[in-house]
Specification:
There is one protein chain. The protein is mainly alpha-helical and 120 residues long. Helices cover 39% and strands 5% of the residues. Strands 1-2 form a two-stranded parallel sheet. Helix 3 links the parallel strand 1 (32-34) and strand 2 (64-66). The protein starts with 8 loop residues before the first helix and ends in a 20-residue tail after the last helix.
Length: 120
């Protein structure tokens, strides 16, 4: 937003990649997949590629692929994932939530708590 100091998608990706070991960073950069309504903005994928080129090591590779159905792709993918029995250990049941409360999510593996400001 105008007037608010926030990082963009490219800077966010750089931060996230830096939290992983170098060899894994490359695997992740080679498999960037975008979905969601905002990725439908004209030039989004091209802009993301420019941003990635700027933050990745010189002459490194990366690949950005857009979902065929960007608007609902995330929802559809989450539905497919949630319907797979082998993923049930990752679910939080109503009973678990009632027992642990909302603070449980601060420690849950699906939490966003990991995001912290970059140090200078």
């Amino acid at each position: 937003m105008v007037g608010i100091d926030q990082c963009g998608v490219g800077e966010t990706m750089e931060y996230i990649l830096q939290t992983y070991p170098k060899e894994l960073q490359q695997r992740l950069a080679d498999n960037v997949f975008v979905t969601g309504g905002n990725t439908q903005f004209p030039g989004f994928v091209e802009r993301l590629e420019v941003d990635l080129r700027a933050v990745r090591p010189y002459q490194s590779t990366f690949s950005v692929t857009a979902a065929e159905e960007r608007l609902l792709g995330g929802w559809q993918g989450a539905g497919t994932w949630a319907s797979a029995e082998e993923n049930s250990p990752h679910f939080v049941t109503r009973a678990k939530y009632s027992e642990q409360g909302a603070d449980y999510f601060k420690e849950h593996t699906a939490s966003n708590l990991r995001i912290t400001p970059l140090s200078s």
